[in-house]
Amino acid sequence: MIEQATFSLRGRNPDVLTCIANLSNDEVFTPPEFANRMLDTLAVGWAAGNDGADIWADNSVRFLDPCTKSGVFLRQIATRLIDGLETEIPDLQTRVDHILTKQLFGIGITRLTSLLARRSLYCSKHAMGEHSVAKSFASDSGNIWFERMDHDWDKGRCRFCGAGEAIFDRDEGLETHAYAFTHTNKIDARVAEMFGDDMQFDVIIGNPPYQITGGGGGTNDAPIYQEFVRQAMRLEPRYLSMVIPSRWMAGGRGLGEFRAEFLGDRRVRTLVDYENAKDAFPSVGIGGGICYFLWDRDNVGECESIYHRNNATTGPHPRNEASRVFRRRFHLSHATISRFSQAA
Protein backbone atom coordinates (compact mmCIF):
# COMPACT_ATOMS: atom_id res chain seq x y z
CA MET A 1 0.00 0.00 0.00
CA ILE A 2 2.87 2.38 0.84
CA GLU A 3 4.50 1.69 -2.53
CA GLN A 4 1.22 2.40 -4.32
CA ALA A 5 0.74 5.66 -2.46
CA THR A 6 4.30 6.76 -3.17
CA PHE A 7 3.87 5.98 -6.83
CA SER A 8 0.64 7.97 -6.98
CA LEU A 9 2.33 10.98 -5.41
CA ARG A 10 4.82 11.16 -8.25
CA GLY A 11 2.12 12.92 -10.24
CA ARG A 12 2.13 10.38 -13.04
CA ASN A 13 -0.63 7.99 -14.05
CA PRO A 14 0.78 5.87 -16.90
CA ASP A 15 -1.53 5.06 -19.80
CA VAL A 16 -1.15 1.42 -20.80
CA LEU A 17 -2.05 2.29 -24.41
CA THR A 18 1.19 4.26 -24.71
CA CYS A 19 3.17 1.14 -23.82
CA ILE A 20 1.77 -1.50 -26.19
CA ALA A 21 4.03 -2.57 -29.05
CA ASN A 22 2.62 -2.46 -32.57
CA LEU A 23 1.38 -5.72 -34.04
CA SER A 24 3.29 -4.96 -37.26
CA ASN A 25 4.04 -2.08 -39.62
CA ASP A 26 0.69 -2.84 -41.26
CA GLU A 27 -1.48 -2.82 -38.12
CA VAL A 28 -0.27 0.17 -36.14
CA PHE A 29 -1.62 1.16 -32.74
CA THR A 30 -2.68 4.80 -32.54
CA PRO A 31 -1.06 6.79 -29.70
CA PRO A 32 -3.71 8.34 -27.40
CA GLU A 33 -2.29 11.82 -28.00
CA PHE A 34 -2.74 11.44 -31.75
CA ALA A 35 -6.26 10.06 -31.35
CA ASN A 36 -7.08 13.16 -29.34
CA ARG A 37 -5.81 15.41 -32.13
CA MET A 38 -8.21 13.73 -34.53
CA LEU A 39 -11.07 14.05 -32.05
CA ASP A 40 -10.30 17.75 -31.59
CA THR A 41 -10.51 18.22 -35.37
CA LEU A 42 -13.80 16.31 -35.41
CA ALA A 43 -15.23 18.50 -32.64
CA VAL A 44 -14.33 21.66 -34.55
CA GLY A 45 -15.92 20.31 -37.72
CA TRP A 46 -19.05 19.23 -35.88
CA ALA A 47 -19.44 22.65 -34.26
CA ALA A 48 -18.96 24.40 -37.61
CA GLY A 49 -21.65 22.31 -39.23
CA ASN A 50 -24.10 22.29 -36.31
CA ASP A 51 -24.42 25.92 -35.19
CA GLY A 52 -21.64 25.67 -32.63
CA ALA A 53 -23.00 22.54 -30.93
CA ASP A 54 -20.73 20.46 -28.70
CA ILE A 55 -20.55 16.92 -30.05
CA TRP A 56 -19.54 15.60 -26.61
CA ALA A 57 -22.77 16.95 -25.08
CA ASP A 58 -25.04 15.11 -27.52
CA ASN A 59 -26.42 11.80 -26.22
CA SER A 60 -27.74 10.74 -29.63
CA VAL A 61 -24.49 10.69 -31.65
CA ARG A 62 -23.34 7.20 -32.65
CA PHE A 63 -19.65 6.47 -33.25
CA LEU A 64 -18.09 3.53 -35.09
CA ASP A 65 -14.46 2.45 -35.24
CA PRO A 66 -14.55 -0.11 -38.08
CA CYS A 67 -10.97 -1.26 -37.51
CA THR A 68 -10.43 -1.07 -33.78
CA LYS A 69 -7.17 -2.39 -32.38
CA SER A 70 -6.33 -1.04 -28.94
CA GLY A 71 -9.73 0.64 -28.57
CA VAL A 72 -8.08 4.02 -28.11
CA PHE A 73 -10.55 6.02 -30.23
CA LEU A 74 -13.58 4.57 -28.46
CA ARG A 75 -11.99 5.03 -25.05
CA GLN A 76 -11.08 8.67 -25.69
CA ILE A 77 -14.56 9.35 -27.07
CA ALA A 78 -16.09 7.74 -23.97
CA THR A 79 -13.98 9.96 -21.73
CA ARG A 80 -15.20 13.08 -23.50
CA LEU A 81 -18.83 11.98 -23.50
CA ILE A 82 -18.70 11.14 -19.79
CA ASP A 83 -17.69 14.74 -19.11
CA GLY A 84 -19.94 16.32 -21.74
CA LEU A 85 -23.14 14.51 -20.71
CA GLU A 86 -22.78 15.06 -16.97
CA THR A 87 -25.46 17.76 -16.85
CA GLU A 88 -27.95 15.81 -18.95
CA ILE A 89 -27.34 12.44 -17.26
CA PRO A 90 -26.13 13.24 -13.72
CA ASP A 91 -25.87 9.66 -12.41
CA LEU A 92 -22.45 8.33 -13.43
CA GLN A 93 -23.41 4.66 -13.86
CA THR A 94 -26.49 5.55 -15.90
CA ARG A 95 -24.35 7.86 -18.03
CA VAL A 96 -21.64 5.26 -18.59
CA ASP A 97 -24.20 2.59 -19.51
CA HIS A 98 -25.89 4.90 -21.99
CA ILE A 99 -22.61 5.86 -23.67
CA LEU A 100 -21.23 2.33 -23.90
CA THR A 101 -24.44 0.61 -25.01
CA LYS A 102 -26.05 3.29 -27.20
CA GLN A 103 -23.26 5.46 -28.62
CA LEU A 104 -19.99 3.54 -29.07
CA PHE A 105 -19.43 0.66 -31.49
CA GLY A 106 -16.37 -1.07 -32.88
CA ILE A 107 -15.28 -3.86 -35.22
CA GLY A 108 -12.16 -5.74 -34.15
CA ILE A 109 -9.64 -6.54 -36.87
CA THR A 110 -8.45 -9.68 -35.06
CA ARG A 111 -9.61 -11.65 -32.06
CA LEU A 112 -6.72 -10.25 -30.02
CA THR A 113 -7.53 -6.64 -30.85
CA SER A 114 -11.21 -7.16 -30.07
CA LEU A 115 -10.20 -8.30 -26.59
CA LEU A 116 -7.83 -5.34 -26.23
CA ALA A 117 -10.55 -2.93 -27.31
CA ARG A 118 -13.04 -4.35 -24.80
CA ARG A 119 -10.43 -4.13 -22.07
CA SER A 120 -9.78 -0.48 -22.94
CA LEU A 121 -13.44 0.50 -23.22
CA TYR A 122 -15.18 -1.70 -20.64
CA CYS A 123 -12.18 -2.30 -18.33
CA SER A 124 -12.74 -6.00 -19.01
CA LYS A 125 -12.46 -8.28 -22.03
CA HIS A 126 -15.90 -9.53 -20.97
CA ALA A 127 -18.52 -6.80 -21.41
CA MET A 128 -20.78 -8.60 -18.92
CA GLY A 129 -17.95 -9.56 -16.59
CA GLU A 130 -17.57 -8.75 -12.92
CA HIS A 131 -15.04 -6.00 -13.60
CA SER A 132 -16.81 -4.40 -16.56
CA VAL A 133 -17.86 -0.79 -16.02
CA ALA A 134 -20.88 -1.45 -18.24
CA LYS A 135 -23.84 -3.05 -16.47
CA SER A 136 -26.49 -3.20 -19.21
CA PHE A 137 -25.11 -5.42 -21.97
CA ALA A 138 -26.92 -8.59 -23.02
CA SER A 139 -23.83 -9.97 -24.78
CA ASP A 140 -20.33 -10.60 -23.47
CA SER A 141 -18.85 -8.98 -26.58
CA GLY A 142 -20.72 -5.75 -25.89
CA ASN A 143 -20.61 -3.46 -28.91
CA ILE A 144 -17.14 -4.64 -30.04
CA TRP A 145 -17.85 -7.12 -32.83
CA PHE A 146 -15.47 -9.74 -34.09
CA GLU A 147 -15.89 -13.00 -35.97
CA ARG A 148 -13.23 -14.86 -37.92
CA MET A 149 -13.71 -14.28 -41.66
CA ASP A 150 -12.34 -16.14 -44.67
CA HIS A 151 -10.94 -14.64 -47.85
CA ASP A 152 -12.75 -15.10 -51.16
CA TRP A 153 -10.14 -16.81 -53.32
CA ASP A 154 -9.93 -16.34 -57.07
CA LYS A 155 -6.87 -17.69 -58.90
CA GLY A 156 -4.71 -17.62 -55.81
CA ARG A 157 -5.67 -14.19 -54.50
CA CYS A 158 -8.51 -12.72 -52.48
CA ARG A 159 -10.82 -10.77 -54.75
CA PHE A 160 -11.48 -8.21 -52.02
CA CYS A 161 -7.99 -7.41 -50.74
CA GLY A 162 -5.47 -9.21 -52.98
CA ALA A 163 -4.05 -11.39 -50.20
CA GLY A 164 -2.11 -14.43 -51.37
CA GLU A 165 -3.88 -17.76 -50.88
CA ALA A 166 -0.59 -19.54 -50.24
CA ILE A 167 -0.05 -17.37 -47.15
CA PHE A 168 -3.52 -16.63 -45.79
CA ASP A 169 -5.48 -19.84 -46.43
CA ARG A 170 -5.00 -20.83 -42.80
CA ASP A 171 -6.18 -23.29 -40.19
CA GLU A 172 -9.00 -22.33 -37.84
CA GLY A 173 -6.63 -21.42 -35.03
CA LEU A 174 -4.81 -18.70 -36.99
CA GLU A 175 -5.87 -15.18 -37.94
CA THR A 176 -6.79 -14.77 -41.60
CA HIS A 177 -6.67 -10.95 -41.71
CA ALA A 178 -9.81 -11.04 -43.84
CA TYR A 179 -11.34 -7.88 -42.42
CA ALA A 180 -15.12 -8.00 -42.12
CA PHE A 181 -15.55 -4.32 -43.00
CA THR A 182 -13.91 -4.63 -46.41
CA HIS A 183 -14.70 -8.23 -47.38
CA THR A 184 -18.21 -7.58 -48.62
CA ASN A 185 -19.95 -5.90 -51.53
CA LYS A 186 -22.88 -4.95 -49.29
CA ILE A 187 -21.50 -2.98 -46.38
CA ASP A 188 -24.96 -1.83 -45.23
CA ALA A 189 -26.08 -5.44 -44.88
CA ARG A 190 -22.84 -6.42 -43.13
CA VAL A 191 -23.24 -3.65 -40.53
CA ALA A 192 -26.91 -4.59 -40.05
CA GLU A 193 -25.82 -8.17 -39.29
CA MET A 194 -23.40 -6.88 -36.68
CA PHE A 195 -25.40 -4.17 -34.92
CA GLY A 196 -29.02 -4.28 -36.12
CA ASP A 197 -31.07 -3.08 -39.07
CA ASP A 198 -31.68 0.46 -37.80
CA MET A 199 -28.05 1.31 -37.17
CA GLN A 200 -26.90 4.59 -38.76
CA PHE A 201 -23.60 6.05 -37.60
CA ASP A 202 -23.04 9.77 -37.28
CA VAL A 203 -19.25 9.46 -36.99
CA ILE A 204 -16.87 6.82 -38.34
CA ILE A 205 -13.30 7.16 -37.11
CA GLY A 206 -10.27 4.89 -37.02
CA ASN A 207 -6.81 3.81 -38.12
CA PRO A 208 -7.20 0.99 -40.68
CA PRO A 209 -4.63 -1.69 -41.56
CA TYR A 210 -2.34 -0.27 -44.23
CA GLN A 211 -1.38 -3.19 -46.47
CA ILE A 212 -1.49 -6.95 -46.85
CA THR A 213 1.01 -9.39 -48.30
CA GLY A 214 0.11 -10.38 -51.83
CA GLY A 215 2.18 -13.52 -51.95
CA GLY A 216 5.71 -12.57 -52.88
CA GLY A 217 6.56 -9.93 -50.30
CA GLY A 218 8.20 -6.61 -51.10
CA THR A 219 6.35 -4.78 -53.86
CA ASN A 220 3.69 -7.51 -53.82
CA ASP A 221 2.31 -6.03 -50.60
CA ALA A 222 -0.98 -4.42 -51.60
CA PRO A 223 -2.38 -1.27 -49.95
CA ILE A 224 -5.79 -1.85 -48.37
CA TYR A 225 -6.46 1.27 -46.28
CA GLN A 226 -8.22 2.94 -49.20
CA GLU A 227 -10.89 0.22 -49.12
CA PHE A 228 -11.70 1.07 -45.50
CA VAL A 229 -12.14 4.71 -46.52
CA ARG A 230 -14.41 3.78 -49.42
CA GLN A 231 -16.55 1.42 -47.36
CA ALA A 232 -16.93 4.03 -44.64
CA MET A 233 -18.09 6.60 -47.20
CA ARG A 234 -20.66 4.11 -48.53
CA LEU A 235 -22.23 4.02 -45.07
CA GLU A 236 -22.82 7.78 -45.40
CA PRO A 237 -21.93 8.90 -41.88
CA ARG A 238 -22.21 12.61 -41.17
CA TYR A 239 -18.47 12.73 -40.47
CA LEU A 240 -15.58 10.44 -41.35
CA SER A 241 -12.02 10.69 -40.07
CA MET A 242 -9.20 8.20 -40.65
CA VAL A 243 -5.44 8.19 -40.35
CA ILE A 244 -3.76 6.65 -43.41
CA PRO A 245 -0.31 6.64 -45.05
CA SER A 246 0.34 9.72 -47.19
CA ARG A 247 1.57 7.56 -50.06
CA TRP A 248 -1.84 7.80 -51.74
CA MET A 249 -0.90 11.35 -52.77
CA ALA A 250 1.72 9.92 -55.13
CA GLY A 251 -0.50 7.15 -56.46
CA GLY A 252 1.27 3.85 -56.98
CA ARG A 253 -0.07 0.33 -56.84
CA GLY A 254 -3.86 0.39 -56.70
CA LEU A 255 -3.97 3.99 -55.50
CA GLY A 256 -4.30 6.07 -58.69
CA GLU A 257 -8.07 5.79 -58.81
CA PHE A 258 -8.39 6.42 -55.08
CA ARG A 259 -6.22 9.54 -55.36
CA ALA A 260 -8.43 10.93 -58.12
CA GLU A 261 -11.56 10.21 -56.06
CA PHE A 262 -10.16 11.72 -52.89
CA LEU A 263 -8.68 14.86 -54.40
CA GLY A 264 -11.92 15.55 -56.26
CA ASP A 265 -14.19 15.01 -53.25
CA ARG A 266 -15.25 18.43 -51.93
CA ARG A 267 -16.61 16.82 -48.77
CA VAL A 268 -13.00 16.42 -47.59
CA ARG A 269 -12.80 19.57 -45.46
CA THR A 270 -9.57 19.09 -43.50
CA LEU A 271 -6.34 17.27 -44.36
CA VAL A 272 -3.48 17.12 -41.84
CA ASP A 273 -0.21 15.72 -43.20
CA TYR A 274 2.92 14.59 -41.32
CA GLU A 275 5.91 14.30 -43.64
CA ASN A 276 7.78 12.26 -41.02
CA ALA A 277 5.44 9.65 -39.57
CA LYS A 278 7.51 9.48 -36.38
CA ASP A 279 6.20 12.95 -35.48
CA ALA A 280 2.87 11.24 -34.88
CA PHE A 281 3.77 7.55 -34.46
CA PRO A 282 7.17 7.56 -32.69
CA SER A 283 7.58 3.78 -32.56
CA VAL A 284 7.12 2.89 -36.22
CA GLY A 285 8.50 4.01 -39.57
CA ILE A 286 6.00 4.63 -42.37
CA GLY A 287 7.59 5.64 -45.66
CA GLY A 288 6.10 8.80 -47.14
CA GLY A 289 4.57 9.96 -43.88
CA ILE A 290 1.01 9.76 -42.62
CA CYS A 291 -2.04 11.98 -42.70
CA TYR A 292 -5.55 12.18 -41.36
CA PHE A 293 -8.61 13.84 -42.80
CA LEU A 294 -12.09 15.01 -41.89
CA TRP A 295 -14.86 14.29 -44.39
CA ASP A 296 -18.14 16.15 -43.91
CA ARG A 297 -21.08 14.62 -45.77
CA ASP A 298 -23.38 17.65 -45.62
CA ASN A 299 -20.89 20.51 -45.87
CA VAL A 300 -19.31 20.65 -49.32
CA GLY A 301 -16.63 23.27 -49.88
CA GLU A 302 -13.02 24.32 -49.45
CA CYS A 303 -10.52 21.89 -47.93
CA GLU A 304 -7.97 23.29 -45.49
CA SER A 305 -4.62 21.51 -45.39
CA ILE A 306 -2.13 21.58 -42.53
CA TYR A 307 1.45 20.30 -42.88
CA HIS A 308 3.91 19.14 -40.24
CA ARG A 309 7.54 19.05 -41.31
CA ASN A 310 10.78 19.18 -39.30
CA ASN A 311 8.94 20.10 -36.09
CA ALA A 312 7.25 23.02 -37.85
CA THR A 313 3.58 23.39 -38.74
CA THR A 314 2.23 25.40 -41.65
CA GLY A 315 -1.36 26.09 -42.58
CA PRO A 316 -4.21 25.82 -42.78
CA HIS A 317 -3.76 26.26 -46.53
CA PRO A 318 -6.58 26.53 -49.07
CA ARG A 319 -6.64 23.97 -51.89
CA ASN A 320 -4.70 26.08 -54.38
CA GLU A 321 -1.79 26.43 -51.93
CA ALA A 322 -2.12 22.78 -50.93
CA SER A 323 -1.57 21.71 -54.53
CA ARG A 324 1.85 23.40 -54.49
CA VAL A 325 2.81 21.58 -51.30
CA PHE A 326 1.62 18.25 -52.73
CA ARG A 327 3.83 18.75 -55.80
CA ARG A 328 6.84 19.47 -53.63
CA ARG A 329 6.17 16.56 -51.26
CA PHE A 330 5.80 13.86 -53.91
CA HIS A 331 7.37 15.45 -57.01
CA LEU A 332 4.04 15.38 -58.83
CA SER A 333 3.40 17.10 -62.12
CA HIS A 334 1.05 20.08 -62.26
CA ALA A 335 -1.33 18.11 -64.48
CA THR A 336 -1.49 15.26 -61.96
CA ILE A 337 -2.41 17.45 -59.02
CA SER A 338 -4.47 20.13 -60.79
CA ARG A 339 -7.72 18.28 -60.09
CA PHE A 340 -7.23 19.08 -56.42
CA SER A 341 -7.12 22.85 -56.85
CA GLN A 342 -9.83 22.83 -59.50
CA ALA A 343 -12.21 20.79 -57.33
CA ALA A 344 -12.79 23.74 -55.01
In short:
The chain is α/β, with parallel strands linked by helices. The chain has a single domain (30-144, 197-343), classed as Rossmann fold (3-Layer(aba) Sandwich), CATH 3.40.50.
Task: Give descriptors for this structure.
alpha/beta, Rossmann fold, 13 strands, disordered N terminus, disordered C terminus
Report the helical percentage: 25-40%
CATH C-level category: Alpha Beta
CATH level-four homologous superfamily name: Vaccinia Virus protein VP39
Rg of Cα set: 20 Å
Low-confidence stretches: 1-12, 332-344
Physical arrangement of strands within the biggest beta sheet: 3-2-1-6-9-11-10-12-13
Number of helices: 11
- Please give the number of β-strands: 13
CATH architecture: 3-Layer(aba) Sandwich
Could you walk me through the main structural features you see in this protein, from its secondary elements to its overall organization?
This protein has one domain: Vaccinia Virus protein VP39 (Rossmann fold, 3-Layer(aba) Sandwich), CATH 3.40.50.150. The protein has 11 helices and 13 strands. The chain starts with a helix and ends with a helix. By secondary structure, it is α/β, with parallel strands linked by helices. The protein has a 9-stranded mixed beta sheet, with helices on both faces. A two-stranded antiparallel sheet has the order 4-5. Strands 7-8 form a two-stranded antiparallel sheet. Helix 2 packs across helix 3 and helix 10 runs antiparallel to helix 11.
